[in-house]
# Entry
Amino acid sequence: MTRSATDQGSATMHNAIKKGLAARGREWRTGWAFALPGLLLLAIVMGFPLAYACILSISSMTLIKPQLLPLVGFKNFASMIGDDLFWNALWLTVRYSAVTVVGEFVIGLGIALMLNRTVRMKPVYFAVLTIPMAMSPISVALIWRMLLQPNLGIANHLMETFGLPRLDWLGTPGMALWTMAAIDIWQQMSFVVLILAAGLAALPRDPYEAAEVDGARGWQQFFYITLPMLRPVAAITIIIQLINEFRTYDLPYVLTKGGPGNATEVLSFFAYRRAFLGLSLNEGAAAAFVLLLIVLLLTVIFFAVLERSQSGEGRK
# Structure
């Protein structure tokens, strides 16, 4: 009697496990059936160009000799790494990205803090802030190139009005990169403001009320309460902007064409110039792959920071 009941219970459990596995298998097949069209489209749109670029980077193809064979392995990468222009472009990209990201974050955080304290007309302020972000980088570059034109630009006209000398903003080697960085900060800052303002609005009010009771001042609340609680949002914002800045191409192409000389030749523009102006598609593809590896590394860091912030919130 006891053995029969035990056998019956085991059979029931076995059937339940089989049904659960069958249901999970159906869910798995249904999920793949829905995901497969999108995955195939991604494979065609992204996978084929990526595979072709990989083959191109180890080939001997140039615009003068448009043939993939013979494959030369890592010779293109070695040639590029031995080129001083590549290291100059990489160093310019690092400097440019660091300056723009720091500028966007510092200014964006200041504006977000002011908007967090503002009650009246806040939607109007946010609408105005989204205007630069809604503009394409090409249109932004064209507008600023006209404003900074040495002879007819409004910027130099205003400087002359105040008794200051004219400047060749985009034609001076020591000034062109920082002018381009300032234009980039002007456009991308609104995105940082929106992200940080959303993070500030989501912070709990209890720590601030307790700090006010204890007599903490505004700057003390900022450094000991706001910044620590805003750290996950700030880290994600910084990494997203780093990825965007390392990939920048529109502004140098329209504003300076990498000049004067190679003063604004960031890595993305170096790959373009080597591939199409230098007629070496293979070395241009190799430079693009180096840029891709850097962006992939930053993406991995981004997801690691995101996972850590989510796990930290889960523990809280």
Observations:
- The chain has a mean pLDDT of 84.
- The first helix runs from residue 2 to 57.
- DSSP finds twelve helices and no strands in the chain.
- The two ends are 52 Å apart (CA to CA).
